[in-house]
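Hi C.,

You asked whether I'd gotten around to modeling the 143-residue construct. I have! Everything is below, sequence then structure, no commentary in between.
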Amino acid sequence: MSFSENQVKKILKVFRGIFVFVMIIGIIGFVLAILMSIFLKTNRYDSSSIIFLIGIITAYCLNRGIKYRKEWIPPVLTILFSFSLILSILSASATRLTFNFQVTYYVAIITRLLVWIIQLFGIYFFAKKEVRNFFNNKGTTIF
């Protein structure tokens, strides 16, 4: 399957929307982690606030890289999607979903499957020659 330039632009808009969504969720999580550490007067939530901050910065950089067609985007996202897919499959096989309500269990399974589909498509999409050409990526990128 090959992609035209218009299809690549549309798919990249979807990925940018996903990264904006991740930034919004990260900002909400960061603010909640800071508020909880202030009101509970503990340092227990410091590591989670740092993780949210790293997620916000990463999503922002990837969003900007896609917007300005940086040549490092295809290899970085291919590697990122590959590692996250492997980690999510390993964590899914190591954990057992237990919920009080059956509906929540099905929502969790559907969410995992949806994330896996997005990750697989991301690996496939950013490895395509048309997408690498769109970003002017001519070969191996040294980070």
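If it helps when you're writing up: Helices lie at 5-39, 46-67, 73-94, 102-127, 129-134.

Thanks,
B.
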